Each structure stands twice: as structure tokens, then as C-alpha cells.
Amino acid sequence: MSKPSRMAASVSVVVPTLNEASGIGALLESVHSQTYPITECVVADGGSSDGTREILAADPAVILVDNPRRHAAAGRNVALRRCTTDWVVFTDGDCRPARDWAESLMDAATSGPDVVGVGGRLTAQPMNSFERVCARMLLTRILRHQDGSRPVITKSLDGALVTANCAYRRDILQRVGGFDERFSNFGEDIDLMFRVLDLGAGRLLHNANAVVVGDMPTTLSATIRKWRQYGMASSYLNKHHYHRISVDAALYRTLFGLIRDVATTSGTARSEALIAAAQLAAHIGGKLEGSVRLRIINL
User: Fold this and answer.
1) CB 3.0-4.6 Å disulfide test: which of 30, 181, 261, 286 passes with 273?
2) Range of the domain at 178
3) Taking the CB of residue 249, how many other CB atoms lie within 10 A of it?
4) CA–CA distance from 206 to each of 111, 120, 178 (Å)?
């Protein structure tokens, strides 16, 4: 089943869940069919009420733990305390990793003794305009999870290690204290990456061959909710890492351009411009909400 090219390091897969019944079965199937040997799959559930827990409990290969704080940062920390392996691989309940996902991550992870973290490429299979617009913005303009493998050396979102698709050495996670639960669901994975970079204990890599398909928002309300979260994450990262007054003029120029497109186009182009404008407006709203909550200026 497994054909890792180097001496196999032991691997835990960690997943936080909260009402993921629609996708958790596909995720578990993907994890169980990996070409790399998975030592343990630890799922931290935040009190799901939609049948997620029943699906998890019925799988004998899953270690199910409770996440009383419910948010993703706390769930991953609860799961981490249960892990026993050399490396911890992260993904989410609405994701579908490729069969060679863990193998590709670990191929990069074992490429040198100084590698402490690896991120992979997040992709999407959009079925409607909401998913298509969100995928285009997130994956090509923000995270830039494109072809090619490279070192990750700066505190930016270009090639960032996101917890839908990344792996860290467990001892490094212990040294940085795991996820900062002040972030809850707002950029906790980017904060972790930044703190590992600050630690200076080794290299971070991005390996585009490690692919995970992630779900995008499928409705207007889901789009607004998700992009508000991204705006909040921007403010949290600004407060704890950048420590500066920030006004992203390019964001507002893009929004005004989209409003112009709504007024001057028709059909699919107009509807997608409208979705993108709502998306960016929600993002700006999240930045503003975060600025007020954290007493900073991040607009």
C-alpha cells in the first residue's frame, strides 16, 4: 500500500469538526486510502448535532476526542495532545485529500533534517458561481497555491501553510505551544506558521504536489460569513504580528472596479462581479469589526 521513498516517519492526521456530516465521510475515505501509512487519525469534535459524531464513532480507525470550546484552534490543540507521532498532518472536515497527499507532504518533510513544516496546494472543484468566485479570489490572488515547490521564508499569505493542507513536526508544535486560541477561527493557522518562522528552528516548504480539494461557500450568506472571517483574521494577524496601522488601498480599488462591472456588464459577468463585490465588502466589514474589537486600525 505504501511506497515512501525515504525512511517513513510516523504520521497523525488531525481534523477539527463541527457539524460536518455532509463531507466527513468523504474525508475519512480519503484519509484511509492514503498511499503513506497513517499511524492515527485524531478528530476533535465541537459538539456536532447533525450526525457527524455518529459517523466518526462508527469508524474504528478514528480516535474521537471532545472539543468543549468548539472552535478550530482549540480542537486542533485537543487533538494534538492525543498525538504520539513524529509528524502531525492537518486537514478539515470539508476537504478531500488526494491519495498521495500525505506521501507528498512527507516526501518534502523528509528531504532534510532541518525541515520542520510543509504546506500543500489547496484546490477547488467549483459547481456554481459562488464557489467559482471564492476559489478564484482565495486560491489565485491571496494564497497563490499554484504549481511549483518553494521555501516559505516570509510572513505573508503567498504560499502560506494553511491547516486544510499542511504538516508540522510534533516537537516543533510543542515548542511553540500549539495554536493560539485567542485566534479561535480567525487565521489561527497563519499565526502558527508565523510563530514557527519566528522560532527559527528550521525550514518551511511548500510542495504543490500535495493536493487537497476544499469546499468553497455555495450561497451568498455562506460567502459573506466566510469572508467576514477572513477580514477578522487579517485584523488578528495585524495586532499580533505586524503591529502597524494598515489601510489596504488596493482592496478598495478592486471593490470600486467590481461595482463598476456590476453597473456596466450583464449575464454571468455581472452576477459574478456582484458576488465578488459582496465578498470584498464582507472582508472589509470583518477588518473593521476586528479593528474595533482589538483596538487597532486595519482597514
Assistant:
1) 261
2) 11-129+149-214
3) 8
4) 12, 6, 20
- Taking the CA atoms of residue 72, residue 67, residue 103 and residue 126 in that order, the dihedral angle to the nearest 10 degrees is -50
Q: Mean pLDDT over all residues of the chain?
A: 94
Q: What is the mean pLDDT of residues 25-42?
A: 97
DSSP secondary structure letter of residue 246: B
Total domains in the fold of the chain: 2
pLDDT tens by residue, 216-244 = 999 999 999 999 999 999 999 999 999 88
How many Å apart are CA 1 and CA 36, to the nearest integer? 8
- The whole-number average pLDDT for the span 109-118 is 96
Domain boundary, last residue among 188, 214, 240: 214
The CA-atom distances, in angstroms, between 141 and each of 115, 159, 221, 276, 287 are 27, 11, 22, 13, 18
Residue in this structure with the C-alpha cell 510534533, named with its chain if needed: 170
